[in-house]
Amino acid sequence: MNTAPPTSTPHVVVVMGVAGTGKTTIGPLLAAELGVPYAEGDDFHPPANIAKMSAGTPLDDDDRWPWLDAIGEWAHGRAGLGGVVSSSALKRAYRDRLREGAPDAVFLHLTGDRELIEERMADRKGHFMPTALLDSQFATLQPLQADEAGVSVDVSGTPTEITQRAVAALRRLDS
Predict the structure, then answer these.
(1) Is the Cα torsion angle 25, 14, 112, 1 positive or negative in sign?
(2) In sequence order, which residues have a C-beta less than 8 Å from that of residue 68 and are 6 or more positions away?
(3) Backbone angles phi, psi at 154, to 5 degrees
(4) What distance in Å separates the CA atoms of residue 141 and residue 174, rounded to the nearest whole number?
(5) pTM for the full predicted model
(6) Which of 55, 124, 125, 129 could disulfide-link 19, Cβ–Cβ 3.0 to 4.6 Å?
């Protein structure tokens, strides 16, 4: 049930973090709680990117720019309407690129202990990102900076608990 108070200009929330933090699980739950649509960031990847990651090869920035631009375009189209979209957005430069397309986007950084994240990755079925790429994800990660609109939420606990923490953190950001 949507318990969020209505806002005049709902945010577009970018759910970010390394692979395995639960972006694809928490994103739809958060969107439902906020009463806005959800877009799966992985769906914006061109087939070449998915093939590369499936083969265990990390993407480079040239692979990521069109993907980030497509996510930014979706977020821009939701400006003032609200929405939730997932994107690893590991580097500040990637978040800056997303903000070029959607300047009012806010980031929800899902954080957690590497051991927990690796365990969750190992348990998921049918996903193209192998656990072998987790080290490169953590090496690339640049956490949100003080001048970036966003919040960090720990991913320990159940999806419902994580979503509740995320909603509370986003509400604090608004106040």
Answers:
(1) negative
(2) 87, 89, 94, 97, 98, 101
(3) -75, 145
(4) 25
(5) 0.87
(6) 129
